[in-house]
Amino acid sequence: MSLIVQKYGGSSVANADRIKNVANRIVNTKKQGNQVVVIVSAMGDSTDDLIELAKQVSPNPPKREMDMLLSTGEQVSISLLAMAIQSMGEKVISLTGAQAGIKTNDFYSKAKIVDIDSNRLKEELDNGNILIVAGFQGINEKNDITTLGRGGSDTTAVALAAALNADSCEIYTDVDGVYSADPRLVKNVKKVNSISYAEMLTLASQGSKVLNPRCVELGQLYNVKIHVRSSFNLNEGTIVQEVDKLEKDRVITGIAHDYDVVKMTIFGIKDQPGIAKTIFKSLADNKVNVRLIAQSSGEFGVNNICFIIDKDSKQDAIETMEKTLIALDGKKIEALDDVACITVVGAGMITNPGVAADVFAVLGDNNINIEMISTSEISVAVVIESKDCERAANLLAQYFEIIDTEL
Amino acid sequence: MSLIVQKYGGSSVANADRIKNVANRIVNTKKQGNQVVVIVSAMGDSTDDLIELAKQVSPNPPKREMDMLLSTGEQVSISLLAMAIQSMGEKVISLTGAQAGIKTNDFYSKAKIVDIDSNRLKEELDNGNILIVAGFQGINEKNDITTLGRGGSDTTAVALAAALNADSCEIYTDVDGVYSADPRLVKNVKKVNSISYAEMLTLASQGSKVLNPRCVELGQLYNVKIHVRSSFNLNEGTIVQEVDKLEKDRVITGIAHDYDVVKMTIFGIKDQPGIAKTIFKSLADNKVNVRLIAQSSGEFGVNNICFIIDKDSKQDAIETMEKTLIALDGKKIEALDDVACITVVGAGMITNPGVAADVFAVLGDNNINIEMISTSEISVAVVIESKDCERAANLLAQYFEIIDTEL
């Protein structure tokens, strides 16, 4: 008997018919002789509706109360899904994050799972129940409800798969799996059958929306095989797993892009030890998430450092950097909006030198100017003007042959 | 410093504006130097919307899952109300039934409170917080969410007032208090300023919808003074309290009526010990709530017993009684729909004999036929044809002077 963890997103349970459809899939999985643990998100747009209600009563609602409010979304979907499954004749029980033993720290609205007390989960499985667990939520030491932030339900699924030592963790979504690039941007792009945690992590961190970076990180940490697939068909999706099981000869796995970035530069700071620490500690202290950093060598004893941040952190970043500029006696700061970040990802890069050079050549030959470069063992990220982003992605996809030429 | 418990029903928090209005009242109570514990119901019709969703996924949803679903309604309203209060600058925290330590038995959908662990409540009050507690819900020994059934939020309020030894318990509703009779039925009826637990209990059990019988019972048990008043104005409402504090010379406190009843009669059963037990035990075993019972002496060794049940128990009652009829070798059963029950209530009856006779006289003199009679120390209940109910209520109100003749 296998233990299968399945996660269904909000669009898969958006209305009564879809809930029944998902219930059917779950019952089929159970009837094939498996134990089944299901993680569900809130129905369709219900979370947005709750946020709208909150705005009507308070301009700046406390995060603890927002978590209290938003966690009801999943509680609604788990109970409805359990009802639908029960009416098909299967034993089933719904569990909130708290009941499922999901313990978090107390960073309301973006809590991290610190422990899973799986006693009740195991007991209910032993009783022959299908478990329907609320994603995106947990409970802190004070017994208060927390939510896990963006992609939280995926994280719940992988964490439960790890805690229960599940045989597989299936993430159901509205696309067929992980694509080598965003199909809305790059024509005829290939679906990836298998991808390493490191590659998926880089893609997810640099703009691919299919999986959340935290859930991939957790999968890697506990070696949980993650199967990303569609809830609307029976196609095999993409398996995220250890790298040694992958096709060795693939150099490039995917291309991520992100328009929601701002490029910040701090000009004219002294070229001496401790400067970078001052800048990035002040940003971290103000909860600005810095995604990429590039510093080239300076001239005349002064440096320019640039970095990429999420667009919604722009105001915080500017305020922080204005103070830092004074403290460091720098020249000026600049924040550029009209940029995009393109990241070419592939574990094969490690054994195939020259990928970075190829990326720069493809862009340069096509007259696309590179504003910033940052590389790792498995990725090359470039910041370019946003107007060039779509063209760049398609050129790179053609060059690295991640599009399906037979289509 | 006084500790005030306030309960607001669904219509008082039906939308953002009403939530802000209620928040204002609460903040004012706090600013007058009181500690405040607030119990809230789900917003407006939100519970009905959730029930509708459940029907769409299952013809007969399990009660545990219904409670999981319905309890989200109060969780939404407590968080929104807490946000509104916080935006007015007051310290506040929302608590689910579970967080408020409300322990129940596990009769899902109509659980009873068995204990309140008030540690967290006291701690949060000591921290200077206004507490916003979800009504209608609790948690059982399995850590599962239960709901308390009809009038559950009132019951939560009185139970918390008892557990915290509150100075008063204010139940806010959409009427000004308890009226001597239903103002929709009886013209110019008087509001009651003060009423005993026993009288209120009888009125509540016999059709008055203002307070739930369970909450009155709990108030009596723990001697919690209950103040029923409107959330839409500042008028004093009705105080439910111990009888010795009441106006002694008032004979009749109120008249309750109920159209939602069925009169059942079982004819031709033997006049011997144990018969009544057989009948009413079989009804109780089948969860039929019997409200009034009347048996007069029989002739020729056979008896007829009649009783009143809630209309929604009719089918269950008929099925049960058909079996009982065979077991008792009785003659036939009858279930009459077109009846109403009128109950005249007053603690003063104990010292004023002849009230029952007066009731019968008023009805008889006006040609209203009495189908059944049942009396207690503080009440006279009669079953009449439903077409006569409104006329009977008005005649009795005039006779017992519970209408305001100055209006």
TrEMBL record, chains A, B:
GO terms for molecular function: aspartate kinase activity; ATP binding. GO terms for cellular component: cytosol. It catalyses: L-aspartate + ATP = 4-phospho-L-aspartate + ADP. Its EC number is 2.7.2.4. Residues 264-338, 344-407 form the ACT domain. Pathway: Amino-acid biosynthesis; L-methionine biosynthesis via de novo pathway; L-homoserine from L-aspartate: step 1/3; Amino-acid biosynthesis; L-lysine biosynthesis via DAP pathway; (S)-tetrahydrodipicolinate from L-aspartate: step 1/4; Amino-acid biosynthesis; L-threonine biosynthesis; L-threonine from L-aspartate: step 1/5. ATP binds at residues 7-10, 173-174, 179, 184, 209-210. One of its GO terms (biological process) is diaminopimelate biosynthetic process. Keywords: Amino-acid biosynthesis, ATP-binding, Diaminopimelate biosynthesis, Kinase, Lysine biosynthesis, Nucleotide-binding, Repeat, Transferase. Substrate binds at residues 47, 74. Belongs to the aspartokinase family. Tetramer consisting of 2 isoforms Alpha (catalytic and regulation) and of a homodimer of 2 isoforms Beta (regulation). Catalyzes the phosphorylation of the beta-carboxyl group of aspartic acid with ATP to yield 4-phospho-L-aspartate, which is involved in the branched biosynthetic pathway leading to the biosynthesis of amino acids threonine, isoleucine and methionine. PANTHER family: ASPARTATE KINASE, ASPARTOKINASE. This is Aspartokinase. It comes from Peptoanaerobacter stomatis. The lineage of its organism: Bacteria, Bacillati, Bacillota, Clostridia, Peptostreptococcales.
